[in-house]
UniProtKB/TrEMBL annotation:
It comes from Nippostrongylus brasiliensis (Rat hookworm). It holds the Pfam family BTB. This is BTB domain-containing protein. InterPro entries: BTB/POZ_dom, SKP1/BTB/POZ_sf. SUPFAM superfamilies: POZ domain. Residues 14-90 form the BTB domain. It comes from the Eukaryota.
Length: 167
């Protein structure tokens, strides 16, 4: 049985961050409520705590950035997506393999052409072949997977040329 959960949020705040909510709340056919049944209430609460000062904004972390990025992308919140991408770019070197994969999947779904994506692809390509082959690439778009392996191939070729010698 699904339980109902209500969140009352200032529509003006949402509209400032999101073109989706600006149109939904203040457009020609304005609405008073929105049913979001594909995102868990605890995830929406986490999202709201990270984007609003209530009474203090919760910081982005490696634990919540994938969720925040996914929801912000869905509701066209460009400032929030940009904040998440900046965080990811700064913290890419500290992500463990699983978090790196999770964050790369989230970024690839919302903004596959961002500069953050190239940082993540480079980081994924630096993982050992054995570890890389165990990852669930079916969750990631094919062009991103191809880019990871292309980058890995380029790095291998570059190293091979450095160690090449002629007799």
């Amino acid at each position: 049985m699904k339980t109902k959960c209500f969140s009352f949020v200032n529509p003006g705040w949402l509209a400032e961050l999101s073109s989706f909510f600006a149109e939904y709340c203040f457009g020609e056919e304005a609405h008073n409520s929105l049913i979001i049944d594909d995102i868990k209430p605890c995830d929406m609460l986490e999202f709201f705590r990270c984007i609003f000062f209530c009474p203090m904004r919760k910081p982005l972390s490696v634990v919540n950035v994938s969720l925040i990025l996914r929801v912000a992308s869905r509701f066209e919140m460009k400032p929030v997506v940009a904040r998440c991408e900046q965080f990811v770019a700064r913290s890419a070197n500290t992500l463990d393999r699983d978090r790196l994969f999770q964050v790369t999947c989230a970024v690839s779904h919302c903004d596959p052409n961002s500069s953050t994506m190239s940082v993540l692809v480079d980081k994924l390509a630096s993982i050992k072949e054995e570890e890389l082959s165990r990852m669930q690439f079916s969750q990631m778009p094919g062009d991103v997977v191809a880019e990871v392996y292309t980058q890995k191939f380029r790095e291998r070729e570059r190293k091979r040329q450095l160690w090449c010698c002629f007799m």
